[in-house]
Design brief:
alpha+beta, DNA polymerase, domain 1, globular
Length: about 150
């Protein structure tokens, strides 16, 4: 079956079953390594991508359900060598250790900032509840999102 999707601004027509998880298409067919396979059950958030403006667990989201929405992975946040302000804030706050959760955290943060340009700590923590970080850098991640939010508003 042929599926048509737009990922990071590029249109693709792929020969995949419509019930194939979006994560598999992103990683295997489009060679995008930002979204990670973590649990396969929408519990850890390592696989999250934006589908439209919604942070979506791509490990359980069928590629056929994307429809006309645009998909954005962490690779699509920045512009070439220019990092996105969230990526810069994560670096400045040393918010990543192993980095496995980082792409999902960045995507969740992007979705949050698109809805709320001035989130408080409680809101950020609530929005990140679906993201797991085994390294324990949650406090740094929250600070990074707050830093990015300041720049977002400026």
């Amino acid at each position: 079956m042929s599926v048509s999707i737009t990922v990071n601004g590029k249109h693709h027509v792929l020969n995949v079953a419509s019930d194939t998880p979006l994560l598999y298409v992103l990683r295997n067919d489009l060679q995008l390594n930002g979204p990670k396979f973590g649990c396969g059950e929408a519990q850890c958030g390592a696989c999250r991508v934006l589908v439209g403006h919604d942070a979506t667990y791509s490990c359980v989201f069928p590629v056929g359900a994307v429809g006309a929405a645009r998909v954005t992975t962490v690779e699509g946040l920045g512009q070439g060598k220019q990092l996105h302000l969230l990526q810069e804030a994560f670096l400045a706050e040393q918010a990543a250790q192993c980095g496995y959760c980082s792409s999902g955290m960045l995507i969740a943060a992007q979705a949050l900032l698109e809805r709320d340009a001035n989130p408080d700590q409680e809101t950020i923590r609530r929005e990140l509840a679906g993201q797991k970080c085994r390294c324990g850098t949650h406090n740094r991640i929250v600070r990074a999102i707050q830093r990015a939010a300041k720049e977002w508003r400026a």
